[in-house]
Amino acid sequence: MNWFSNPFNLAQQATDYWIDAAQRSILFMDVLRERGDERNHRAEQTAPHVLTFQFEVVMDGRHLERPVNYGLLHILQPDGIQPDPTKRPFIVFDPRAGHGPGIGGMKHDSEIGVVLKAGHPCYFVGFLPHPVPGQTIEDVCRAEAQFIAKVAELHPEADGKPALIGNCQAGWQIMMTSALNPDLVGPLVLAGAPLSYWAGVRGKNPLRYLGGILGGTWMTALAGDLGNGIFDGAQLVANFEKMNPSNTFWSKNYNVYSKIDTEAPRFLEFEKWWGNPVLLNAGEMQYIADSLFVGNRLSDAALLDSAGHRIDLRNVKSPIVVFCSWGDDITPPQQALGWVLDLYEDDAALVAGGQTIIYSMHQSIGHLGIFVSASVANKEHEEFTAAMDMIDIMPPGLYEAVFLDKDEEMLQAEIASGDLAAGDYVMRFERRNLDALRALGGNDVEDERRFATVARVSEINKGLYQTFASPLVKSMVTEASAERLREAHPLRMRYTAFSSKNPLLNQIPALAEKVRAERRPVGKDNVFLQMQEAWSKQIVEALDRYRDARDQATENIFLSVYGSPVLQALVGLSTDGGKPRRIGRDIAREAAINANRAALALRTKEGGVTEGIIRGLLYIFRSPEMSAADERAFAAIRQLRLRTSDNKVMNVTTLKKILREQYLMLQVNEEAALNDLPLLLPEAPEARQEALGIVRQVAGATGTLTGEAATRLDRIAAIFGPQAPTLAVVRKKKGAPSAA
């Protein structure tokens, strides 16, 4: 359409647009005022949070022997219905990475909401905005261990140890806690949690270069000194915002301004969490920067606690679920999963270590969406929660979680055999090898050498700062100057400036009320509104081009400076071309693993019908066609209600122990385990046929067996036949388990 063919219509469109734009401007200013007032109100609270669920305090970390500003909360069911006491409890740990607590329960469709909906007892570990003087990361890990023990104590009837969900920073923290207390915890879910900080690919993930560009962590020490022993979490939030300047400086606010009639509530809800940065002790932040961000010592098993215990993630006995996303620019998949490649040379070492690792990669969701997106909560988190008992008994190895939409065949199978997979999806855990993680991309040896150079340069610069500059800085800082510096941070200033504390905004509430009464939004076909949208897109594109150029320049500088052979030699790195780091072997740990495998190899004749059924099933599932574990097969096992020798229904803990032992027996010597399998079976032919029926039912829960899987089933059927030898007398003396 020719815009100028009807000048009167164009003038009318201009008038309508400027009225709408003026009204939107006033309403937008009022939204910013509400945001600022909310931030000021929350800053005065002792324990601000964004949880939408009612709770009661179970433990206050400030009263522990080594006090911390963390606390354990019991989340109450919204409907007042008590959770099932036999279900394992869940504990959600929120990240202390600059923001306040509560994002894991910010909405009803959230991690906490999913757990409550599934009928599990739910707990939450949050924190206060101010740290306890002198608290350390080790103190926090020690407190978390006490919280976990308390939850287990409160639920003695629960079928399984507490499951832990750690978001972002809380993910690596619960991993440290679990490595030091491996017998205390159940399955771990790490949502967007970075554990391998050097990992990434060129052209992406620029945040990993930040330590090198700043010359190491001496600026962290400077920030702590300027804060009089306190590190301001607003600086961490600012680093996140700098990653995407178009969103920070334009899109987020423009989205509210352009959709002011609908978008304000969502914006205010999110800003309630985003705009209240918390504080950390300078020592805590220095530990994080030195040991994790720059040193990358967690995935190297190079950290020690104060008692000299190595914090080795290979010591974690519980299954580990890693949930990450390709759309996450804070914790890309390489950083979420790279620690596996750091710690294990091959798949055999992973299995021999008894560790079960399951990963799931979303295709597009952003970092915060992993915790707050309703679509993620109602799919990934819901499925992981429902399958947690199955995850707990998974044999050692690496798996990828795959979510299948239920098709007509699956629905018909459910009608025939019962609902073996609740919800709209079927979850499968498909066997993977370490090459699948290597295919994600990562550093070559030269890049590893560059990051190792950064770590050494950081130590040198920090030492120089602490020796020569730190005493001078500390002598000039007071608590008053530190507080003024925190209040002057741009993140806080933008909230204070647009709040009722600013007298220039006194008339805004009245004007906004009048505008709402006389609102005249313009139509989408308005030419001036279309021009506004076009200008907005150009601004975003310009800021994105600046971001890309900045990130590329940052990477080039990093690669050039820290790739210098001269600098590498000056900091003591070998120039022979070998790997700059190598994970040390733990001889005592390896000896214990080998001793356990040797002992299991001698126990293939021990057990009863339950062990026999599980061994037979595992033998079938070791075939290439059955490389994926399906929740329907696990549901079939649970429906059969296997029993122990004293005729009690077998719980998850006992089932897990038997399953892992039988799996390792097959791995050590499959033929010996099969040759001794008849000795575990009942003497009566009818009982053997009943046991074989169980094997067939579970193995066929996901469909008809074909190929090698069918061949293996035939072999198991022959072993379970009445002609196979038994040791009925021996079994009677031992009181072997039985199947219902």
TrEMBL record:
Descriptive protein name: DUF3141 domain-containing protein
Species assigned in the record: Duganella rivi
Superkingdom of source: Bacteria
InterPro entries recorded: AB_hydrolase_fold (IPR029058), DUF3141 (IPR024501), PHA/PHB_synthase (IPR051321)
